[in-house]
Automatic annotation (TrEMBL):
Protein name stated in the entry: Cadmium-translocating P-type ATPase
SUPFAM superfamilies: Calcium ATPase, transduction domain A, Calcium ATPase, transmembrane domain M, HAD-like
Domain of life: Bacteria
Alphabetical UniProt keywords: ATP-binding, Cell membrane, Membrane, Metal-binding, Nucleotide-binding, Translocase, Transmembrane, Transmembrane helix
C-alpha cells in the first residue's frame, strides 16, 4: 500500500494545485495567486522528472525525462504556466499508470513468489514441530495436512492426498499422490494427508527454480527490444535537433517546445518489454517456462518441429504386447525363456518382458549363468546350461530364417519392436514390445499446423517399420528412424541449412545435442528436473503434448502484439508531429495524446495475460 500511495502522491498534489488555480481564477478573475498555484503544480510534478533527467544525463543518456524537463522549463520561461503544469502533471499521471500496469504484467511472478509457504510442520524426536520452511533439512519428514501448502520438494512416505499442482505444471485437475509419489513445494493438498521425505528445500525447490527462471526471463531482452533501445538513443537527440531547428527557423519557441513534448518516444520504448513480460508471465502460469525474450521471439518464427518418439509421442513405458510361438512351442515357454535371459539385462525392453512373465506366474529366477550384450542387436545368455538369444532376427537366427523375418516384419508393421527368441540356436518364437502412443499425439500434429508450423518430423532410434507405424497413426509424413544422437544432430543441422527455424522437442535432458543445436529446444516433463529448467530454451513442466503448440502459439501472439505496439507508437508520433507542424496541436494536447498512446500500448500488451485455453 505504501508503494501505491507514493506512486500517486505527486500527480495527486499537482492535480490539486491545478484545480485550486482554476477555482481562484473563477472566483477572482486573473488574480496572481492563480498563476502562482499553476506554477507550483508545474514545480511539484516537474522536480521528480528533472531529477530523473539529471541522473540520465550523468550516465550519458538522453531520455524522455530530459525532453519533458526542457519543454516544461521553456514553458515557464515564456510565462505559459498552464502548459508547464499540464505537461508535467500528465507525465506524472502517465508514469504512475505505467508503473501500475507494468506491475500487473509481472503479477505471474508475484503470484509464484507468494506460493512459497513460510512454515513447515516436521517430525523431530517423534513430535510434530512447526518451523520456518527454510530451516527444514534434507531427509527430514514433513507433515502435509488437508488444505496445507507443501513446503518442500520430496517423496511421499505415507498416506494419500489429492494435490493441486497448477502452480508448477499448469494442470487444473489435482494429482493423486501416494507412497513413492513426488510432490513439489508450493502445491496444495486439497484433500487427504501425507508425510513427505524432504529432498529439495529453500532455493533448491522446483518452485524456487521456476521463480528464478521467470525473473531472469522477464528481464532478458529480445533482439527487437535491443534494436528499439538503440533506435531511441538516436531518435531522442534527433527530436531535440528538430525542435531546435524549427525554433530557429520559425522563431516560435512554443512550437519548438511542443515538438519536444510530442516527440517523446515513451510508447516506443515500452512497446516491446511490456509484451515480453506479459507473454512470459502468461506462459509461466500455464506451466511453460521460457528462458528469455530472445527465445520467445525465436519461437514465434518456428516453422519446423522435430519430435523425439520415445517419451514424447509415446508414453515412455514399454509393455509386452505379443508372444508368437513357433511349431510345438507354447507362448508361455517362449516368454519364459526370454524372461529368464532378460533378467540379467539392463536394457529398457528387458523390464516389460520380465514383468509380463511374472504377471503370468512364470518362473524367472534370479539371474542367468552368463549374459553378453550385443549393442543394438540384443543379448546372448546362458540359462541352466542352455544358450538363449533374444534380439534381432540376424542375432537370434544366425543364418537367414524366413519364419523369424516374417514374424518380425508383422510385429514391426503393427508398431511393435520385435524380439526373436532362440534356444540353442533354434528359433522358438518372437515377442513384441510396444511403447504406447499417447492418445493426444495425433491432435498434437494438427494443433502444430494450426499455429503455423508447416513441417513436423519424428526422429527416433527405433527401426524403420516401427517408426513408420507410429508416424502413420499420429499423422506425421516424415519419420527418420535408426538415428543415433549425433545423427539427430545432423538432421537438425540440415533443416537449418534449408533456412528453416527448427524447434526440437524431447523429454528432459535426452537428445541433448539436438535440443542444444535447434533454434528452440523444448524439454517436456521438466517439473523436478533442475537441469531441464535451467538449460532448456523452453521447459514444459508437464508432459502434456498440447503445451507444445500452446507455447509456440503464445510466442506468435506475443510477437504480433510487439509489432502492433511499435506501429501504434510510431503512428501516434507521426500524427502528432504533423498536427504540430500544420497547427492545432498544443503542448498539453500533445502530452495528453502521448500518455494515452503509452497506456494503449500497455493495455494491448496486457491482453497476453488472458488464458489461451
Amino acid at each position: 500500500m505504501i508503494t501505491v500511495h507514493r506512486r500517486w502522491a505527486v500527480p495527486a498534489v499537482a492535480g490539486a494545485l491545478i484545480a485550486a488555480s482554476w477555482v481562484v481564477d473563477a472566483a477572482a478573475g486573473g488574480h496572481p495567486a492563480g498563476r502562482w498555484l499553476m506554477l507550483a503544480a508545474a514545480v511539484v510534478a516537474g522536480v521528480p522528472v528533472a531529477r530523473s533527467a539529471v541522473r540520465a544525463v550523468r550516465l550519458r543518456t538522453v531520455g524522455i525525462d530530459l525532453l519533458v524537463t526542457v519543454a516544461a522549463a521553456g514553458a515557464v520561461a515564456i510565462g505559459n504556466y498552464w502548459e508547464a503544469a499540464a505537461v508535467t502533471t500528465l507525465f506524472a499521471i502517465g508514469h504512475a499508470l505505467e508503473d501500475a500496469t507494468l506491475a500487473r504484467t509481472r503479477s505471474a511472478l508475484a503470484e509464484l513468489v507468494a506460493l512459497a509457504p513460510d512454515v513447515a510442520t516436521v517430525v523431530r524426536d517423534g513430535t510434530q514441530v512447526t518451523v520456518p520452511a527454510r530451516e527444514v533439512a534434507v531427509g527430514e519428514t514433513v507433515v502435509v495436512k488437508h488444505g496445507a501448502r507443501v513446503p518442500v520438494d520430496g517423496v511421499v512416505l505415507t498416506g494419500r492426498a489429492a494435490v493441486d499442482e497448477a502452480a508448477i505444471t499448469g494442470e487444473s485437475i489435482p494429482a493423486e499422490k501416494a507412497e513413492g509419489s513426488t510432490v513439489f513445494a508450493g502445491t496444495v493438498a486439497v484433500d487427504g494427508f501425507v508425510t513427505v521425505r524432504a529432498a529439495g528445500v529453500g532455493a533448491d525447490t522446483t518452485l524456487a527454480r521456476i521463480v528464478h527462471r521467470v525473473e531472469e526471463a522477464q528481464d532478458a531482452k529480445a533482439r527487437t527490444q535491443q534494436f528499439m533501445e538503440r533506435f531511441s538513443r538516436w531518435y531522442t537527440p534527433g527530436i531535440i535537433v528538430l525542435a531546435l531547428v524549427m525554433g530557429i527557423a520559425t522563431r516560435d519557441l512554443e512550437l519548438a517546445l511542443t515538438l519536444l513534448v510530442i516527440g517523446c518516444p515513451g510508447a516506443l520504448v515500452i512497446s516491446v518489454p511490456v509484451a515480453l513480460v506479459a507473454g512470459i508471465g502468461r506462459a509461466a502460469r500455464d506451466g511453460i517456462l521460457i528462458k528469455g525474450g530472445e527465445f520467445l521471439e525465436t519461437a514465434a518464427r518456428v516453422d519446423t518441429v522435430a519430435l523425439d518418439k520415445t517419451g514424447t509421442l509415446t508414453t515412455g513405458r514399454p509393455e509386452l504386447t505379443d508372444v508368437v510361438a513357433r511349431g510345438d512351442w507354447s507362448p508361455d515357454e517362449v516368454l519364459g525363456w526370454a524372461a529368464r535371459a532378460e533378467a540379467g539385462s539392463e536394457h529398457p525392453l528387458a523390464r516389460p518382458v520380465v514383468a509380463a512373465a511374472l504377471a503370468r506366474g512364470l518362473a524367472v529366477g534370479a539371474v542367468p549363468d552368463d549374459v553378453r550384450a550385443v549393442p543394438g542387436r540384443g543379448i546372448v545368455a546362458t540359462v541352466d546350461g542352455r544358450e538363449v538369444v533374444v534380439g534381432t532376427p540376424e542375432l537370434a537366427a544366425g543364418a537367414k530364417d524366413q519364419w523369424a523375418e516374417q514374424a518380425s516384419a508383422r510385429l514391426a508393421e503393427e508398431g511393435r519392436t520385435p524380439l526373436v527368441v532362440a534356444l540353442d540356436s533354434a528359433v522358438i518364437g518372437a515377442i513384441g514390445v510396444a511403447d504406447g502412443i499417447r492418445p493426444e499425439a495425433a491432435a498434437l500434429v494438427a494443433a502444430l499446423r494450426g499455429v503455423g508450423v508447416s513441417r513436423v518430423l519424428m526422429l527416433t532410434g527405433d527401426q524403420a517399420r516401427v517408426a513408420s507405424a507410429v508416424a502413420g497413426r499420429v499423422g506425421i509424413a516424415d519419420a527418420r528412424a535408426g538415428l543415433l544422437p549425433e545423427e539427430k544432430l545432423d538432421v537438425v543441422r540440415a533443416l537449418q541449412a534449408e533456412g528453416r527455424v527448427v524447434a526440437m522437442v524431447g523429454d528432459g535432458v535426452n537428445d541433448a545435442p539436438a535440443l542444444a543445436l535447434a533454434d528452440v529446444g523444448i524439454a517436456m516433463g521438466a517439473a523436478g528436473s533442475a537441469v531441464a529448467v535451467e538449460t532448456a530454451d523452453i521447459a514444459l513442466m508437464t508432459s502434456r503434448l498440447d503445451r507444445i503448440p500452446q507455447a509456440i502459439g503464445l510466442a506468435k501472439r506475443t510477437a504480433r502484439v510487439m509489432r502492433q505496439n511499435i506501429a501504434i507508437a510510431l503512428v501516434t508520433v507521426a500524427l502528432l508531429l504533423a498536427g504540430v507542424l500544420v497547427g492545432g496541436v498544443t503542448m498539453a494536447i500533445g502530452m495528453l495524446v502521448h500518455e494515452a498512446s503509452v497506456l494503449v500500448v500497455i493495455a494491448n500488451g496486457m491482453r497476453l495475460l488472458r488464458p489461451t485455453r
